[in-house]
Amino acid sequence: MDPLVFPQNFKGEVDTSDQTRSRYSEDTSIFKITPRAVVYPKDVSDLATLIHFVHTRRGELSLTARSAGTDMSGGPLTDSIVVDFLRHFNRVKYVNTEYAVTEPGVYYRDFEKATLAQGVLMPSYTASRDLNTVGGMVANNSAGEKSLTYGKVDRYVKELKVILQDGKEYTLRKLTRAELEAKKSQRDYEGEFYRRVESLIQSHYNAIMAAKPRVTKNSSGYAIWNVWDREADTFDLTQLFVGSQGTLGFVTEITFSLVKPKPASRLLVLFLRGRHFKDLGRIVNQVLESKPESFESYDDKTFNVMLQVFPKLFKRLGGNPFKLARDFLPELKMVLQGGIPKLVLMAEFTATTHDEAEAMAREAEKKVRAQYDVATHVTRDAKEGEKFWTIRRESFKLLRENVRGKHTAPFIDDMVVAPQHLPEFLPELYAILDEYDLIYTVAGHVGDGNFHIIPLMDFSRPDFVEIINNLSERVYTLVGKYHGSITGEHNDGLIRTPYLYKIFSPEVLEVFNEIKDVFDSHRIFNPHKKVDPKPEFLRTAVKRVVTEE
Ligand SMILES: Cc1cc2nc3c(=O)[nH]c(=O)nc-3n(C[C@H](O)[C@H](O)[C@H](O)COP(=O)(O)OP(=O)(O)OC[C@H]3O[C@@H](n4cnc5c(N)ncnc54)[C@H](O)[C@@H]3O)c2cc1C
């Protein structure tokens, strides 16, 4: 292999040390792939330099964007060049009460500080909001606890600056018909990509619209169904880039629209036992009728881990440990009386006053209790609500860090099925899972029918790859049967790209390929994600974790 000699006009840093390459060889997926180099471009012209450089070594090198590296699907992993956006693309450029302009490598937690200073926020934040960047959120079309009401990141992207395969920066935003026609008449690459994408959409319109998963959250495939609004006759290429995992080009600047959050909130918490499982889908639909702003869940295994790491949680929640112990007394009492609840559901009701929020939560509680014999609790104040949110938000992190001898294996970690199908879907799903000798946790956004099932596995067990292949195949077939999505927010990456065919027809998969051809004809951007699947990574690139006893 020729050594990598980067062009002299590249102003950023290049690091090929073993230590750095090892650090960038992992995200939070099951994969480990060591890059040849990690580069830290200083600005847009550096990105152009990298693109031109990779074109000179066509077929040999590629560029994979990386922001905070918290992806669960292998999205930022490559054996070629990692392009880091954290170091230099990290300025919030402008914020007012309606929108904000930011670079992609800004941590969401810093972005939120800047927007909350204006009393507004971008509400599709993740459970990993303290760890990830806004660029990663755009590239994955992320979502979180507020998405039930506020939707995913795609709803808040007003404008994107992207740098494409020709090394030039373009601004994408929603265009009217007249603006689109003007773009299409240009005799340059911009004119060409608008012409080609529009023609693709028009010639496969019915198949594309039928392919859109019938759920409220989807990050799978290219969201080509959101580009052309036939009724309004608008054309918005930002929607193709949101959720495209850096496979079509680099995002260099984002303009987000912002919302004003409601100030008061109360949680209705439902503690479900095993006997309630047959009614789970119906209970969910019943609570949804009361229009909670968020509706989340975590299961008994997550709860168990939480109990094991109580001292650490104390620290994270802060404050007085005696008061916290008192706050958790109802749960501890419940555990002593009847064991750990099988599933905890948290429905959040928000309003302009606390009394209003409480009345909404109480009303929903009354309706559920009238039909189901379920233990419930309405939180007294925001502080008490925080303890439930901490367990829910931290669940994946707690599991990653705290289960000895086993490791989180996200591979069926993000499926979505419309809540009305849950009464049929969930028993079928659990029947499949029960056939395997697995410990797994279930948490997620139950209101959207979006479940994070995370098996805890010994990665050295001989049937590891077989289980992943087998379960993914069966579970995604089931998801396809209910017109769901194989990923609501974590995206396809290396782990799910081989399964897109489970929910998309050959015609639509071909449209995805053609989209890739329009923007990345030489496959220089983040290969093997979204198109050109490489299932063999499961054999060649899974983390070799040493299991401690
Ligand atoms: C504890 C935990 C909880 C999580 N909870 C959630 C959750 O609630 N909701 C959710 O949606 N996700 C969740 N995730 C997954 C992950 O955190 C999110 O998808 C996050 O938005 C990724 O951001 P990042 O900055 O880490 O991106 P990275 O991991 O660095 O990259 C993600 C993808 O974006 C691409 N990319 C990055 N920067 C750019 C750029 N400038 N231009 C083009 N492409 C780019 C990368 O190539 C990669 O494909 C969770 C992860 C963890 C570890």
Fold blueprint:
Layout lengths: L12 E3 L2 H6 L13 E4 L3 H13 L6 E4 L14 E4 L7 E4 L3 E4 L5 H9 L17 H7 L6 H4 L6 E7 L5 E7 L1 H8 L4 H15 L1 H7 L16 E2 L4 E3 L1 H4 L8 E8 L6 E9 L7 H9 L5 E6 H9 L1 H8 L3 H7 L1 H10 L4 E9 L2 H18 L3 E4 L3 H21 L4 E2 L3 E5 L5 H13 L4 E7 L4 E8 L6 H18 L11 H4 L9 H14 L17 H4 L9
Parallel strand pairs: 2-4, 3-4
Antiparallel strand pairs: 1-2, 5-6, 6-11, 7-8, 7-11, 8-10, 9-10, 12-14, 12-15, 13-14, 13-18, 16-19, 17-19, 18-19
Helix pairs in contact: 6-7, 7-20, 11-16, 17-18
Bound molecules: flavin-adenine dinucleotide (FAD).
Flavin-adenine dinucleotide (FAD) binds next to strand 3, helix 4, strand 11 and helix 16.
Features:
single chain; 549 residues; alpha+beta; eight-stranded antiparallel beta sheet; seven-stranded antiparallel beta sheet; 21 helices; 38% helix; globular; binds flavin-adenine dinucleotide
Please tell me about this protein's structure:
The structure is a single chain. By secondary structure, the chain is an alpha+beta fold. It contains 21 helices and 19 strands. A hairpin with a 4-residue loop joins strand 9 and strand 10. Helix 7 runs antiparallel to helix 20, helix 11 packs across helix 16 (382-402) and helix 17 (422-434) runs antiparallel to helix 18 (464-481). The protein is globular and about 70 Å long. The structure holds flavin-adenine dinucleotide. Flavin-adenine dinucleotide binds at residues 27-28, 64-72, 75-76, 85, 104, 126-128, 132-133, 135-137, 139-140, 142-144, 245-246, 250-251, 396-397, 489-490, 526.
